[in-house]
Amino acid sequence: MTNTEKIFSFIDTYAQSSNALYLEAVIDACNEWLTGSSTPDLSTPATHEEIRRGIQLAILKGMKESAQPNHQMTPDSIGMLLGHIASKLVSENGETSLLDPTVGTGNLLYTVMNMMNGNVTAYAVEIDEVLVRLSAVVAEILEQRVTFLVQDALRPLFIDPVDMVISDLPVGYYPDDENGLNYELMPPEGHAYAHHLFIEQSLNHTKDGGYALFVIPSNLFESEQASQLHGFLKNKAIIRAVIQLPSTLFKSEVHEKSILILQKPSEEIIAIPEVLLAKVPDMKNKHAMARFLQDIDEWAEKES
Ligand code: SAM
């Protein structure tokens, strides 16, 4: 068995013999591991990626028990790509601070952090208390430096501005109209889109010149509130890239997602650069994928 399989098997065996809900039992198993009262039987030390993947398999199993569309974990195919881009956009020297305002299970955040060679800290926000306990214990096992906030991330966040925001945005209406009024993207009538408000909130907490990377619905710029979003982005952000993910990753056209990369304006950015519009090839096609990543690297080198 690989280390990843052994880690999954350790958590799964624990969860099967527990009376708690599977996800709760995953948290308990991870806590046992942390305290050393029982540990996976590994013959060689596991890498951070092996640990993340082993725990991820268990979380996926637990998620099937209590699946909610907006709680879905960000899949590795998307996380690895975002991590690749994120690691190219940050400076190699010095520490990078991240914010994931919708951290969920932490899978996306830890995929990105694992790709950043350790010189990274993060704030993580999540409204669901179980998911915060889960992602917090995983952060400890992965020895990642993460500060957690259990709250509605669209309420005031008491954190320092960060170098980069990453978020797989929850899509849908934001029910709290009163709080929505604190945002420019609150429409004059009806509910705001949560995913729009998250973009505005993320920019509120990004340093000047910093980046915000989002997993967005591919039809973001086609909704009935799109013109308001366009106007907002024109004044408050620089759109650096829109990268369409392969449709084969999604159940249907309405579920298709893209990656949106924004930069917060700063005095140092004088000329507005061209927007990179790209399409990720079939991820199983290794040659096409290598070429695509090379194009992304060249773009990032010019842009960062
Ligand atoms: N990247 C995450 C992962 O890998 O597990 C998945 C993110 S999931 C698409 C969106 C998350 O946003 C869900 O976990 C949901 O509970 C959370 N969320 C939704 N509305 C929120 C809010 N107002 N404040 C904080 N978190 C919120």
Key attributes of the depicted protein:
single chain; Rossmann fold; eight-stranded mixed β-sheet; two-stranded antiparallel ribbon; 10 strands; 41% helix
Please give the structural blueprint.
Blueprint: H1 3-16, H2 22-35, H3 48-65, H4 76-89, E1 96-100, H5 107-114, E2 120-126, H6 129-142, E3 145-150, E4 162-168, E5 173-174, H7 177-180, E6 192-193, H8 194-204, E7 206-217, H9 226-236, E8 238-244, E9 257-263, E10 276-279, H10 286-303
Parallel strand pairs: 1-2, 1-4, 2-3, 4-7, 8-10
Antiparallel strand pairs: 5-6, 7-9, 8-9
Helix pairs in contact: 1-2, 1-3, 2-6, 3-5, 4-5, 4-10
This protein binds S-adenosylmethionine.
S-adenosylmethionine binds next to α5 and β2.
